[in-house]
Each structure stands twice: as structure tokens, then as C-alpha cells.
Amino acid sequence: MLSHILPKAEISIRENLRWLYILRNLMLFAVTVAVFIAVNGLGINLPQNQLWLAIFAISILNLYTWLRLRTPEEVTEHEIFSQICMDVLALAYLLYLTGGASNPIIWVFLLPLIVTAIMLPQAYAWNMVIITSCVYTVLIAYNVPLPAVEPHMAHPAMTEMTPEMSLQMHLMNDRRYFNLHVFGMWFGFVFSAGLVAFFVVELSKTLKERERNLADARESALRDERVVSLGTLAASAAHDMGTPLGTIAILTHEMAEELSEHRYPDMHQKLVIVQQQIDRCKQALSVMSASAGEMRAESGKVMLVSEYIDEVLGQWRTHKAATRLKLFISPNVDMEARVIAERTVTHSIINILNNAAEASPVDAGIEFHVEWDEETLNLKIRDFGPGLPAEFIEFAGHQPVKSNKQGMGVGLFLTYTTIKRLGGKIQFSNLESGGACVEISLPLLAKESMHEPITYG
Fold this sequence. Notes:
Layout: H1 2-5, H2 13-41, H3 48-69, H4 77-96, H5 110-119, H6 122-141, H7 163-258, H8 265-293, E1 300-304, H9 305-317, E2 325-329, E3 338-342, H10 343-359, E4 366-372, E5 376-382, H11 390-395, H12 410-421, E6 425-430, E7 436-443
Parallel strand pairs: 2-4
Antiparallel strand pairs: 1-3, 4-5, 5-7, 6-7
Helix pairs in contact: 2-3, 2-4, 3-4, 4-5, 4-6, 5-6, 7-8, 9-10, 10-12
């Protein structure tokens, strides 16, 4: 039943054994309290030695389970089922000593059945149905009768009673015993109802968490698939564009030589600009090709956060030297904090800065707020442009979107994917005072792992 709702691949079997250990502790506590109340509170004559021996045996089993949870060996479903069967045998012995099927807490056999149905596949659940049903049937015929609260024994005063008075006394005692039995059945219903409700609530939480994790994993897989596709297309485009760019560079150089600067100054100046742009395109293709063949560990060097911010801004300035930048760094920062300066993250931040610079008026510039502590680097990039469209904020980073500059939003999509892949967060918003704001959070390198080698999964 519930095994189809909760696949075993999603819930650790070791976690199931831990829950079984917790539930057995609760059972031990409940049984101990029940025996103590029955003997000392209600005056019921029970075989205490045998009962405490059974409780001790359950305690030994739970001690073994506690030690088993501390070992690295894999926990199997058969092991869990075997432990539940031992619990059933222990409960059967306890009920055998306390009235068998006539005991009002005979409903306790439902608990191992519920636990089996939740933790194990369907076959184990049906086997547990057979085992508990057989044990229940046997306890109907074979058991130690449960004594009454006020047993029907000879009393000196009863010898002087008439038969009618003696019968009335027996009826009163039977009524008290029946009331105790009804109270036990009521308590069993309340306890089992609360337990079932607890399991249903926990099951619902687990299902919601599993669905949320599955949705996140599915979204991450789709995003990674798109990144791989874009990377393949980028490598192919870099290879295909190399030859045409080389041809254009040669032709431009020849035209610049033919159109000398002293005879055609305007045309020569325009050709020089074209040559510069061609060189920039060739340089970008070279970086793309080198990055494609570069080991990821080489691009993930450890740097101080302050040095990393200087490096990012230095690289960005080579493209946007004329853009005004207002830099705000929080004074309360950890100067020893370090970050893994991966090339893709650097390009992602530069991409956001470029987008902000293009959206802002020339005289307004952009704002760059930086703060960090021992765990997180927080960046806030703010422009003074018209802001982001509402539909763009909704889908920004999740998929490539069309822009008003004949682009497809691929750079922003790769930026979002890169930051999420490294465990960071990125958020887009529009400010009431005007302009858009991008907030980026990146995890910093823990101090205890600064001297360990950097590995990537």
C-alpha cells in the first residue's frame, strides 16, 4: 500500500530503523507505566516476574538496535522486518500473561502492522497481517486470565450474607471489572487514533518534502541539460566562426593598407575600429576554446574576498571603462574570508554588471554594494534604468528570454545556472525609486577547509 507512495529510494532504510528504535522506546515506557499502574494503583494481581523479564528482553533488543545504528554497515529491509517480528512476539508474550484476547489493549497488534506498511514493501505488510492474525487467534484460546480488580474470593463477612446479597455483591464486582475493561478499550481507541494521526501527518510532511525535492531536482536537471546544449552550440559556433573571422581580419588589413590614413583619414579610422572589434571577437573565441579544455580545478583558485572583488572589477573595467561605478563595501567584513574564484562565476558577475551599465543612463552610472561574513558573500548591483518587465522577473534565469537588444537572454540564463550550481542565490527585483536590482549570494570557503584540495563533483 504505502510502499508505492513512499519509494524506498527516497527514504533511507537506516532512517526507518531509527524510527523503529524511537517507537520501541515509547512502547517500553508505555508498558512499564501500565504494569506499574495495574499492580500498584489498581491492585491487579499480575505475574510481575515474567512481565519484567519480557520488558527486559525488549530493552536488550532496543540496545542492540541503538548499537546497530552506530555502525556503518548497510541496513536491510529484511533486518527491519525481523526486528518488528521480535516486537510482535514480545507483545504476544506480554498479552499472554495479561488475559490474551480479553485484554483491552489487544489493539496494540495494529502498531507493528502500521509500521511495516509504512516502512517496508507490500509483501512484508501482508506477511505481517498473517503473523499478527495468527498470534491474535492463538491468544484467544491460550492465555493467563486477567484477574479482576476485586476478585471473587471468600470473605468472612460474605459467609453471613444471604444468597441474594452475595449475588448482588458479585454483580457489583463484575460491573466494576466491566467498567475497567471499557476504560481500557476507550484508552486504546484514543491512543491508536492519536498514533495514526501522527503517522499520517508525518507521512504528509514527507510526501510534500519529497515532491518539493523532486521538483527542484527536475528543474535543476532541465537547466543543466540546457546548459550542456548551449555549451555544445557555443563550442561549435566558436569553431565555425574562427575561419570567417580570420578571412574578415585579412581583408580588413588589406583594405587598411590600400586606404592610407593621409589620403582617406575617415575611412582608415573606421577600418581601425573594425580591426579592433575583430580582435576582440577573436580574443573572446580564444578564451571560450581555452575554457572548454581547461581543468575546472585550475579555474577554481582560492582567493581573499577583497582581492577577488578587485579582480572582478578590474576585468569589468576593460570593457566598460567609461561607466560610472559607485562602490559600497560594508565596514564590518571578515578580511580573512576566502572564496573559490571560479572563472564562470567571475564571468557571471561581469555579465550582470554589463547589463546594468547598458540599462543605466551614462550620467547616472550603477551602484555595486558588497558585504560578506564568515559564510556568505552578498553582492547587490543596482542600475537607474527603466527597470525589468514583470514577465521578465518571473522567468529571469529559469529559461532564455527575448530582450530588446536582439538577444535571447542566454547570458543571464547561464549566470543564473552557474550561481545556483555553486550553491548560491540570485534574485531580481525592481526598486520603487526606479531601476532594477540584482542580489547575489555566494557561499564562502569554510576556514577549516582552506588548506584542503578543491574538488568538484
